[in-house]
Design a protein that fits this description.
about 575 residues, alpha+beta, Aldehyde Ferredoxin Oxidoreductase,  A, domain 1, Aldehyde Ferredoxin Oxidoreductase Protein, subunit A, domain 2, six-stranded mixed sheet, 24 helices
Length: about 575
């Protein structure tokens, strides 16, 4: 590492004392690069055993990597914390400008400790931290308003990044998110609730440093090769043209698009909510994360008429991806694009994770239809597949929590089903609600065993689809070994920190070349060690906090609903989970 590289510096912030300090920690970054690798080591240091996830002892850790600010698609920030949603590892990644802003401010990581006695937001730059009163922002109806106010207060746009929570985070909903740059999120596992527990409304981060490289000629050549690969890649071109919603129609065609709480893998409204349809009829803008030439973020322009006035409209600009379309569309039986987008908008305003919200509401809809709950529980709201208005009201009540039922929903589908029944169709894995794929056994095994219980941990859905294309029959042993190898390599990518859409561009050779040109003397064995060790540490943290592979609940709905991967049973899934855990 170059001696003047700001990556090796960590900013420690104490909310309780309103103080901060900067420490040089080169050994951490020399050993584990950054991102996930550094993040899990800091979490081990900072989070006591059995810490209350909503107590002051639970840290918030942000980490960036050695390629951030230097190469295209190195655009993510990793957040680490103890999850209030699952009770163990909380890890969430977000794009936007946050990673570049943190590194340009001169830090490789930010550690936030303690809790404030009043609402605050923090302004972080090269000079340190300023603590600002956020009392006037606390309780704001819309997360959009918070962003607008902070942009005015803190000097407009540019290289500055704003992270903030909505009312859901303030009310400690266990799957509240943190919004950054309006259209990107630390979405999963409840970072927003951890912010809320600390009375931390927002972070504003800005820096203007320059970054050194070891070999300018090699850096230029490597940069150009990566940029060209990104721009010329057919996959990246698809991400630019249609974005991840390109998945909707192919998944529906093979019966892998979760619909109406996974009662089916096919949705008759798939064409209406597809990426192609949205691009043709609603696409308003494409935007990109910092230092990314792809611009995969697609914004829909939705005009909503004001009451009693035929000529005046409110125009909403809403980000849409495959996961929000699944969660607020097919999972809820919504084939009306305006209705689906307005449900997404309400989720965004409240500051909730869209996947957990959609899956939780889908379970609640089926529970109401089965008589497990009634309209007294739902505060008079009728939940019915295809009814956007009812879902918008329910999203608001998840935040305000007027009944015991909504207080249960505010802790997710696993918790709610434990109280009200219907666990067989409560679609959570390790406590985290399912993503938008029902491709076969490997995807469900992947979410069960993955460190974050996320589709981005090991891409089991790709394993299912590749086997389907090749006519292969998957075995538990093959699934366990393949998922483990993939997840280990992804620890390397998220330590760098790279957008996982670019994993086909950043192969091992490219990663090593990029590191060398930037001044990091790593070899292939170093990368393998980092991937295996980072995953081992994550699983060890989870197990320290009570996680048990053998105690994982397998939702029966995934077995009952046919998938394109063919029939499988619970024994098959459990055997694959055991194979994975035995190989760790």
């Amino acid at each position: 590492m170059l001696p003047h590289d700001p990556l090796k510096r960590i900013l420690y912030i104490d909310l309780s004392r309103r103080s901060f300090e900067v420490r040089e920690r080169p050994e951490l970054f020399d050993e584990s690069l950054g991102g996930s690798g550094v993040g899990i080591r800091l979490l081990e240091e900072e989070c006591p055993v059995n810490a209350d996830p909503l107590g002051p002892e639970n840290p918030i850790i942000f980490t960036v990597g050695p390629l951030v600010g230097l190469y295209p698609l190195a655009s993510k920030t990793v957040a680490m914390f103890k999850s209030p949603h699952t009770g163990n590892l909380g890890e969430s990644h977000a794009g936007g400008r946050s990673a570049v802003s943190i590194r340009m401010a001169g830090y490789g990581a930010v550690v936030i400790r303690g809790a404030s006695v009043m609402p605050v937001y923090l302004v972080i730059d090269e000079d340190g931290v300023r603590f600002r009163d956020a009392s006037a922002l606390w309780g704001t109806r819309s997360s959009y308003t918070t962003g607008s106010v902070l942009r005015v207060r803190e000097g407009g746009s540019g290289t500055r990044s704003i992270m903030r929570i909505g009312r859901a985070g303030e009310r400690l909903v266990s799957y509240a998110c943190v919004i950054t740059e309006t259209y990107r999120h630390f979405g999963r596992l409840g970072l927003g609730a951890v912010f809320g527990s600390k009375q931390l409304k927002a972070l504003v981060i800005e820096g203007k440093r320059t970054l050194p490289v070891a070999d300018r000629r090699a850096f230029r050549q490597t940069y150009d090769a990566i940029y060209k690969a990104a721009v010329d890649s057919p996959l990246m071109q698809k991400y630019h043209e249609l974005g991840t919603p390109i998945n909707v129609l192919p998944l529906d065609a093979i019966g892998a698009l979760p619909t109406r709480n996974l009662q089916s893998g096919r949705f008759e409204g798939a064409e209406a909510i597809s990426g192609e349809s949205l691009a043709a009829n609603y696409l308003g803008r494409r935007v990109a994360c910092a230092h990314c030439p792809v611009a995969c973020i697609h914004l829909a322009a939705l005009r909503i008429p004001y009451p009693n006035d035929p000529y005046f409209y409110k125009t909403l600009m809403l980000g849409y991806d495959h996961e929000p379309i699944f969660a607020a569309g097919s999972m809820l039986g919504l084939d009306s694009v305006p209705g689906m987008l307005q449900v997404m908008d309400e989720i965004e305003m409240q500051g909730l994770d869209v996947m957990s919200t959609g899956v939780t509401l889908a379970w609640a809809t089926e529970a109401l239809a089965r008589g497990l709950i009634n309209e007294a529980d739902t505060d008079g709201v009728t939940l019915a597949f295809g009814d956007a208005a009812g879902y918008i009201e329910a999203v608001q009540r998840i935040t305000t929590q007027p009944t015991d039922f909504y207080r249960a929903l505010a802790r997710g589908v696993e918790h709610a089903a434990t109280i009200y029944g219907g666990r067989s169709f409560a679609l959570a894995f390790g406590g985290n609600e399912m993503p938008g794929y029902h491709t076969g056994p490997a995807c469900h095994v992947g979410w069960s065993v993955g460190a974050r219980h996320s589709h981005l941990d090991n891409a089991g859905y790709s394993l299912d689809q590749n086997a389907l294309k090749k006519g292969q029959t998957l075995t538990p042993e093959f699934i366990g070994e393949t998922l483990l190898n993939e997840e280990r390599w992804r620890q390397v990518l998220t330590s760098l920190v790279l957008c996982l859409f670019a994993r086909g561009i950043y192969d091992r050779e490219t990663v090593l070349g990029a590191l060398a040109a930037a001044g990091f003397a790593w070899d292939a064995e170093d990368l393998e060690r980092l991937g295996a060790e980072t995953l081992r540490r994550k699983i060890a943290f989870k197990q320290r906090e009570g996680f048990d592979f053998g105690a994982l609940r397998i939702p029966q709905r995934i077995i009952e609903t046919p998938s394109p991967g063919g029939p499988f049973d619970e024994a098959f899934v459990r055997e694959a989970i055991e194979c994975y855990s035995n190989l760790l």
